[in-house]
Predict the 3D structure of the following.
Amino acid sequence: MASLTNKRILLGITGGIAAYKSADLARRLRDAGAEVRVVMTQAATGFITPLTMQAVSGHPVQQTLLDETTENGMDHIELARWADLVLVAPASANFLAKLNQGRADDLLSTVCLATDAPLAVAPAMNQQMWLNPATQRNVFGLKQLGIKLFGPGSGDQACGETGPGRMLEPEELVDLVAGQFVTGTLQGITVMVTAGPTWEAMDPVRGFTNRSSGKMGYAVAQAAVEAGARVILVSGPTALKAPERVEPVNVTSAREMHDAVMERVAAVDIFIGVAAVADYRPKAVAEQKIKKGPDTLMIELERNPDILANVAAITDGPFTVGFAAETENLLEHARDKLQKKHVDMIAANRVDQTELGFDADQNALTLISTSGQIELEPQPKTRLARELIKHIATGFHAKNTTEDSRQTYR
Ligand code: CTP
């Protein structure tokens, strides 16, 4: 099946009998992973109701250019920016003519003019109208403008005639839409990232935590989205806003993070533990604020679950990547963690240099796996995260290929 994970498709519907197929098209686009928003022309609403399209797309349908009452709506510029691709299906002869002329007299034509996303049209009309030289001149013009023509197909028409002008079937259109996107290295893959610190309360106002801004984990989640993955970001308390298109799960303590991960891990292909999880928590949490008392205060701590090790221990579980933050003997400790936690890869990260690591925007990593060691040079965390994701994708695909061939051999 075509994959459109994380892709934003703006579906334009114009007036034509084929509009009844647009509901199926929207549903199939969503099944392939896309987010779909619908804009309908006035004429389209005569063939299919906005309510139907709202139900299948999951968003309110937008119809007019100047409508202050569209509470949940985006204006034409926002819509134009939002889209990764605009598909007009069905596209009537009149709409092709308008598009070729660059008119902007309704919401859909205005969005088409305002977007810099790829634009595709799926013409649908009577065969005489399609073959008319005026339409063919418009089609020629649209091609010159770089607008993609999906179809039309040929065959029996709603008007009783036979010939070219039928809108392509929804499944053909979904394949054509998917073909417009460069397939990322993690297309169709589910990635889970843990990020930020955890907070282990000792009383209602105090607790233990680890130093972590969450920047690296959030950048890794963002890079995985860019590579086409569905991304679940399980984050401890940070000041950061979750990147767009990730599924955020916010937690506070290590045990909450552990539970949030374990609840969702069955659907995960790659697990990346970037969080600075507190290894211990206070054994008892005081219900009220602890008052000052003697000169010394003993607080007993107990071990938290090791999330990464528990994920790595799952039979046929995800490809696991751990982070190792060390202040000394970096590579030795990192190799040790690779073996002890049985993970597929460790990203070792020196935190003793102020310009790198913790709160910094820059970082450098050494990737260690059983197949060797790779150095990723100091660079902004966003760029570094993209490089890291590239190597993780390579490792993941290599492992899966080996396992598949082993299964075939058996
Ligand atoms: N980690 C985890 N759960 C824990 C502790 C750590 O998932 N309770 C993960 C981190 O997200 C990271 C990796 O394990 O990916 C390494 O964490 P680190 O704290 O550096 O190592 P530890 O295993 O805790 O060992 P030590 O504290 O002895 O260095």
